[in-house]
Amino acid sequence: MALKRLASFFMTLPVVTALALALSASAASAKAPAGKTLVIALSSDSTGLDPESVENNDSGYVMAAIYDGLVAYKPGSTDVEYTGIASKCDISKDGLTYTFTIRPGIKFTDGTPCDAQAVVKWWDRLLNKDNPVYYAKRPGIDSFVPDTFHNVDKWYTEGKDKAVIHMTKPDGSFLNSLAMVWMGVTSPTAADKYGMEFYKHPVGTGPFQLVEWVPNDHVTLEANKGYWKGAPKLDRIVYRVIPESSVRALELMKGSIDVIADITPTDALTLEGKPGVTLVKQPGLMILGVSMPCKTKPFDDVRVRQALNYGVDKESLCKYVFKGLATPMNAPMPPSQWGWDKDLAGYPYNPEKAKKLLADAGYPNGLNATLYIYPAQRSYNSAGGPAVGQAVQNDLKQIGVTITLQQLEFGAFLAKTRSKDFGDLCLAGWSGDNGDPDNFLGALWRSDTLINTAHYSSMPFDDLLMKGLAATTHKDRLAIYKKAQKVLTDDAPWIYLNYATQMRASSSKVHGMVLNPTAMFFGMDKVSKD
Amino acid sequence: MPQYIVRRLFHAIPVLIGVSMVVFFGMHVIPGNVAQMIMGDKATPEALARITRELGLDQPIYKQYWNFISRAVVGDFGVSLRTQNPVWRDLWLAFPVTVQLAITTMLTALVVGIPIGVWAAVKQNKWFDNLAMVGVLIGISMPVFWTGLVLMIYLGLHLDLLPISGLLSDSITLHRITGLTVVDSLLTGNREALVDTLRHLVMPTITLATIPTAIIARITRMEMIDVLKQDYIRTAWAKGLRRPYITYYHALKNALIPVITVTGLSFGTTLGGAILTETVFGIPGMGRLAVDSILFRDYPEVQGLVMVASVAFVLVNLIVDLLYAWVDPRIRLDQEVEA
């Protein structure tokens, strides 16, 4: 009897199901919410919304609309201006004391005044390990706080409207660091209230505030109508998690979303020219290259390193492998980085010169080397490790250099290539964090940095980096970094490949969005939607 | 029967322990570490060492395993290294989503697969049978990923009939009670959300149901052909009974036992996480959580996922065995088999 009932059930259900599906499918298909809600597609979920204790980009995209910094980047630039919480900053002549004048009348979205005292309390949360709500009490977090404040020894208020910070050594990159989304000013009241759970309850002074965060699905922000720069033009922003890149492109074409935060080159080329879609492209704050071990034969000879640079056809690499979405490197910093030296010639493709250099170095018959690659794409390498590795391998074969490719999963790749005794070639790349030249030149090639996979060590270069950080005027720093780029280009610790093109796709109904080189969604108060 | 259930659950314990050990030690064999994943390109040796120490990853591996298993037995899987949430909370959010998808998938597979199998058997070697078997072959062969994208492009984009991804439109607010959006819509009387979530489920369900539908159709056909040749069926014909009665009353009910087995196995597998489907359609279920956790080396999360999936699989198979006894009175689960 039970089986009879079961059998009957399965024979009648198809009719009922088909009818239900037909009825439901006839309803109007979902579009992005009407009116003033902007839907932004992310590739993965935020891991937290406490700016000082998270570092992944998807979290940053959300936080850029919730927080303001003391200073801000000029729209679309890595230059810093005083359009943040501080109306100005006086830097002492020795470069050790920064006095920020805090604008009056700014409030956090929980009503706490954002004055000099609040800013100093914010610093205390970041710098005082005895603070009960010290930001790093959660285990396993990583942060830009140590790098930004590594020389700071004192922080205090001066009068009602000045917040002062003092450091033991000058750091010319300090203001650029403070402009990062990772240096958003957080409400001390909320930090006290939520403690270690603050990363789920963000409170800033920004144009939007958190309404809802459904893990792995979406984050919803609503407008902060009392925003000190004026009420935002949008009512809401929804950040939707859509892991698959091609699905994000389909959703944009359909009109269900308004902006794609991270777009792959393949999807960008698909979307380019599509009606109703705007694709913004500009040189990104990123570089890609092949690191060469400067202390290991034969790469300890600069002629060999220069030969390999001349031996790779970067123009073709950018045109065919990167589908035109990268530009050949001429200098160790990208064009979007202030201080980039556009006059450096770099290493244009010249296989004959490459062979001659190899012969001069004692390798007339070429040489063998191993190149470590990773399997997937990176933000600075949209073509992926294997494609770039094979292209470099093919080019170098023409000048007698036989490359063996070794592919490792990314975690294993980092562990291998960052070890002190690593002595092979490896793919290397970097996305700038704070828009300061030292974030490229120092982070990648200073003698003592772990990320210096080339183990490049040059006293003159290190000396220039030190001077660059100690200089207190923009003009002085420009001159120093121009010299540093020349030294680094001539010494060629990397095969300098290209600068990735930064892209963002949006609906044509979206206006006022300016793509910042750090990729963050700054200036959302000015964004509107038809 | 109760003794049988208790015995089966008791036998599951060593299975779960074994599974947890295999996954735990397997995860630690994979190169790369979570500290590196947290820091990415920006890693420094000091920060790597600090994070490794803070997360307890510098302890001997057997100690890490003991810390995990001793808490897991009381339902504490620790804290996710990636989300910083208690693992049980991440699982509590993801598991109902996958359960919902698994239910709609298996229902679809059954309501489509069984009738196709029955009719193919009745019309054996005729055009419908041949067409059905070609369809089965295509269904089994098509990669889930490809099926999903094709459906999205045609049904979602070109014909604009259905939403492309997710479980609910951004304009819909639904109060979470169970985590199953269909059930929550019904419980809260939110008709708009009900229709919206059903529409979102159509394409992922079709995508995920393709393979089990094909398998169920094939097995049903095979069993029906076998049953239709039995003497009692010939007797039924001789008695002058009508074809539908013979097919659905006498034949089908005896052909369903293997179908129940396959359904149970497929359901249990789907509960473990429909990884590709959830990733393609942006559904925040166990499959997506598994992918993100494995790539991040989020050991506690992966362990928790595997334990939950294993328990689900054990329970589903137990239910399948109990269903055998319910549908076929000849089966006695609590009786010993005599040599």
Q: Summarize the main sheet of chain B.
A: none
* Residues in β-strands, percent of chain B: under 5%
Using the CA coordinates, give the radius of gyration of chain B: 24 Å
* Total beta strands of chain A: 20
What does this structure look like?
With 530 residues, chain A is α+β, with helices and mostly antiparallel strands. Helices cover 31% and strands 21% of the residues of chain A. Chain A has 16 helices and 20 strands. In chain B, helix 13 (286-296) packs antiparallel against helix 14 (299-327). Chain B has 14 helices and no strands. Chain B is mainly alpha-helical and 339 residues long. Chain B has helices at residues 2-29, 34-39, 45-54, 61-72, 87-122, 127-141, 144-158, 181-187, 191-228, 231-238, 243-271, 275-281, 286-296, 299-327. The model of chain B has no long low-confidence stretch (mean pLDDT 85).
Key features of this structure:
heterodimer; A: 530 residues; alpha+beta; 12-stranded mixed beta sheet; 4-stranded antiparallel beta sheet; globular; B: 339 residues; mainly alpha; 74% helix; 0% strand
Brief rundown of the structure:
Chain A has 530 residues and is an alpha+beta fold.
Layout of helices and strands:
The complex is a heterodimer of chains A (530) and B (339).
Chain A: H1 2-25, E1 37-42, H2 57-63, E2 72-73, E3 80-81, E4 86-91, E5 97-102, H3 116-127, H4 145-148, E6 152-158, E7 162-167, H5 174-178, H6 188-194, E8 208-214, E9 218-223, E10 236-241, H7 245-254, E11 259-260, H8 265-271, E12 277-283, E13 286-291, H9 302-311, H10 314-321, E14 326-328, H11 351-360, E15 367-373, H12 385-397, E16 401-407, H13 410-417, E17 425-431, H14 438-445, H15 459-470, H16 474-491, E18 494-507, E19 510-511, E20 528-529
Parallel strand pairs in A: 1-10, 1-11, 15-16, 15-17
Antiparallel strand pairs in A: 2-3, 4-5, 5-7, 6-7, 8-9, 9-10, 11-18, 12-18, 13-17, 13-18, 14-18, 19-20
Helix pairs in contact in A: 7-8, 9-11, 15-16
Chain B: H1 2-29, H2 34-39, H3 45-54, H4 61-72, H5 87-122, H6 127-141, H7 144-158, H8 181-187, H9 191-228, H10 231-238, H11 243-271, H12 275-281, H13 286-296, H14 299-327
